[in-house]
Amino acid sequence: MKVARAKGRLRGKQPKLNQRREAHLVALFDGGDRSTAELADLFGVTRSTVYRAVERERARVGARLGAGMSAG
Predict the structure, then answer these.
(1) Mean pLDDT across the stretch 17-42?
(2) Rounded to two decimals, what is the model's pTM?
(3) 43: which residues sit within 8 A by CB, 6+ positions away?
């Protein structure tokens, strides 16, 4: 493992959704047309993954809004 870490190849489990797919999932979730279970089935993930993706997006948006407000 030390050799792999030195070469930058120790990565762990890969995420089920990349940033583009996660953004698409959140957009569909925010649209309100599909249930959480439908989105999970559509993207091949669990419902908890859908909820985590939505929470990550909300945290990102909140961080951007918070950074914008403190700058002004």
Answers:
(1) 95
(2) 0.72
(3) 16, 17, 21, 25, 49, 50
